[in-house]
Amino acid sequence: MSAEKKQVPSVWTRPQRRVREQPALSRDQIVTEALALLDDAGIEALSMRKLGTRLNAGATSLYTHVANKDELIELVVDLVYGEIEVPAGGSGDGGG
């Protein structure tokens, strides 16, 4: 029996692995997509895993931008409140 020599590829000659190109996430993207998820399916459907799937990211990568689900909900509420247009001036009826 002869021992066959198996050639081990050198680290210097081995082709580089393809790096998966993923766009960087931002807090704004996460909050905007969370709002879309809430609009589509309601608050019961909001999970970091589902949100990560919609953003093509892992759920754990979301925690780089938001501390937890409660903070995410606060940020979504802030986004919604920021979109409310308050009429300029008063209605003139005194409000009460």
TrEMBL record:
Keywords recorded for this protein, A-Z: DNA-binding
GO MF annotation, one: DNA binding
DNA-binding region coordinates: 47-66
Keyword NAD carried by entry: no
Domain HTH tetR-type span(s) in chain numbering: 24-84
SUPFAM superfamilies reported in the protein's UniProt record: Homeodomain-like
Name by which UniProt lists this protein: TetR family transcriptional regulator
Species lineage: Bacteria, Bacillati, Actinomycetota, Actinomycetes, Kitasatosporales
